[in-house]
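Minutes, project check-in

Agenda point 3 was the complex the collaborators sent over. CS summarized: two entities, 475 residues total, and the question is how they sit relative to each other. Sequences were read into the notes so everyone works from the same version.
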Amino acid sequence: MDEQSHISVENLNAWYGSTQALYNINLEIPPRHTTAIIGPSGCGKSTFVRCINRMHETLPNTRVAGKIQIADLDVYGKGVSPVWVRRRVGMVFQKANPFPTMSIYDNVAAGLKLNGFSNHGELDKIVERSLRQAALWDEVKDSLKKKSGASLSGGQQQRLCIARALAVEPDVLLMDEPASALDPISTAKIEDLIFDLKQQYTVVIVTHNMQQAARVAEYTAFFLMGNLVELDKTEKMFTKPSDKRTEDYITGRFG
Amino acid sequence: MTRTRFHQGLDDLKQKLLTMGGMAEQAVERAVRAYQTGDGSVCQLVLRDEGKINAAEREVDELAIDLLAMQQPMAVDLRFIIACIKINADLERVGDQAVNIVERVMDLARHPKSSVNADIARMAALTISMVREALNAFLTADADLAQTVLERDDLVDNMNREIFEAADKAMTHSTETHRHALDTLLVARNLERVADHATNIAEDVIFWVRGADVRHHAQT
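CS then shared the predicted structure for the full assembly.
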């Protein structure tokens, strides 16, 4: 089962028009672990995760070259549908984006319904399971169909978005600064959640907060000016990084 | 994102620890001088300054804890602060050993001299040089220099064993002077402990600079 979510990246390059954002990225992201991507603004970390689920190409004039393999899935393979890729690779963004007019229940079920899933008994189970996995069930179980997603607090909305991403049973969960707009208590809940999720999913999290990377991720990759500088166990990255540039960045000597 | 205030805090920590190191080194030098000359006024200086070393220890700890809590240091900075906390404890113990030595010196003055053949001067010179060079290694972030300190610890241990044998012989030879021999033995023991602290400091410098744990001959 682990092989289902191993991510292998080979010679990945990405552009916005004529501006190159990623240069020859090669790395292996281990399955069922959390890998944090850190680096200064503009280093390519968000572009990198957006390449994993083919979100990069949704912006105009963008281009990707190279290979990303998620187990048997060649993400940029000929004939591979971006929709199918995004079904396998869920994503949570910096700003929670629940569908504002939909109920909590419908927010979670949206992805499945879009894929034509109509077994209501089964849908109820999936919604409950997803909300439980996102540590939100107890807070919303009595108002599932009464309250809209937009009526929840910021931290709850973010967990709702995580539940929505989990409902389609992805192999990989990408998170682009998922807690940067949240208060410390909501952040702690999201971090606890990330810690639990890795038992079932391969989690890749972009974060500006190095302490957060240290708390949630077993592996950390440092990006700089579109290049991968190093990827190693988080513990090693934050106590004894191999590359001087990593050390200078994490100790605040440039940035 | 350059963290000017944080780096200023690290510089302050280093400065405070070096000042404390100077006090601890001076305490040992004075204690050895007191042993060699029997000068009671020098003993009093060591006893008087012990409180200053203890106060410096608290100050260094407070600053280090503040930096850990407020700045969440990483990598080389984290290793530096951890090393400072440990060196701080070792320097405070060096100060304690100096006090132990002067207590023996004051006791020696009250008892008949023994015939114990102990080269305390040579042992003290080596021990003090270890403390000084461990502190120089810390000042200049020189792991190679720290390594040379480690290599000298065995010499001090051997001298300590020699003095133990000599004291044993002297005590067997004359029961009237056993107190003097015992004090001499304890001075050697205190110097040997100072050398151990210098060794610990050198190991902490290597940990800070290279990220390697070389304690107890560990290979990393």
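Noted in discussion: Chain B has six helices and no strands.
Follow-up: revisit at the next meeting once the mutant set is ready.
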